[in-house]
């Protein structure tokens, strides 16, 4: 599931899986086949996350429930002191949230935000979500319950375990690229404008890891090179490795950051440290 999400769906919805837009549209539906929704993902990820990376209240990837704090600009409460211990459990629940309530909640919120222009489109979106989720539950849960021969409790436990591993895997890849102390969490000025232009902003708010790991690069659809992806989301991930040295050299020439958190365990450790810090102190919103 994680491989389909990061290696196929992610590129397809960005329009970079194929030169053919119909192939991209078709392959984008793979996210629906694993329980989520392509239209909601496009608005959350392509529109909000890529346009407003690490900007509080705009980037939906860091808009967390009250018991999690992913930005130094978010309000802090007493629970956050312990988030470095319990956040991992909720990462594991993230795709379970996708297949149950999250898509409905986000579609409604995006409609209220004006990202979905009319009520008819919103209502049609709700119907599509329901039909796709019924399709997913039918083959992923109902058929195994009816035909596998295993006890219902075992099938349900396996289903939940599958989602826990998927949610944890996907969350660690994305969080290790954006919620670490090396990156910035900039805010707009009084006029509502950002200080940096788009590419400088992406370099400041995004981090690579495991630059030399071909295996991990393949497993996560090139998202070890998050910088290259954020700069060029319309380019297939198979080209990121060749782009990386050019991007790094150009960044140095212009005095811009090019963050790299080492191998994957190191990147996870830095995310762990960031969760700890965010639960205790008000970090500066922009790191120079």
Automatic annotation (TrEMBL):
This is Fatty acid desaturase. The keyword Transmembrane helix applies. It comes from the Bacteria. The keyword Thylakoid does not apply. One of its GO terms (cellular component) is membrane. InterPro entries: FA_desaturase_dom, Fatty_acid_desaturase. Pfam families: FA_desaturase (PF00487). The chain crosses the membrane at residues 85-105. GO terms for molecular function: oxidoreductase activity, acting on paired donors, with oxidation of a pair of donors resulting in the reduction of molecular oxygen to two molecules of water. One of its GO terms (biological process) is lipid biosynthetic process. Keywords: Membrane, Transmembrane, Transmembrane helix. Residues 2-259 form the Fatty acid desaturase domain. It comes from Cyclobacterium qasimii.
